[in-house]
Design brief:
Helix content is 27%, strand content 35%. It contains three helices and six strands.
Length: 95
């Protein structure tokens, strides 16, 4: 089994993520592209000591980026996970 910290890369803090947290108790994570839903669930439960009810994942395509000349590059593709927690559970964000 993979290490939990290699599956969960970071917590994604965005406007949409903040709304989901306040209304539906859902959190957004940037995860490893080869991780599946079961691995993500176990990693979140292990790292944050919460109960996960549901995990939704989506692949996000990298964007086209222009370099100094007319050459175009791309940012990396990544995977996002929306994790729903049990009512009453919470992930504390360090300030």
């Amino acid at each position: 089994m993979k290490e939990a910290r290699s599956i969960i890369k970071r917590l994604l803090v965005t406007e949409k993520g903040t709304r989901l947290t306040e209304k539906l108790n859902q959190y957004l994570f940037v995860v490893a592209t080869d991780a599946n839903k079961v691995e993500i669930k176990r990693a979140v439960e292990k790292i944050f000591n919460v109960t996960v009810l549901k995990v939704n994942t989506m692949h996000r395509s990298g964007k086209k980026k222009r370099q100094r000349s007319m050459n175009f590059g791309r940012t990396a593709d990544w995977k996002r996970a929306v994790v729903t927690l049990k009512t009453g559970d919470k992930i504390e964000l360090a300030q």
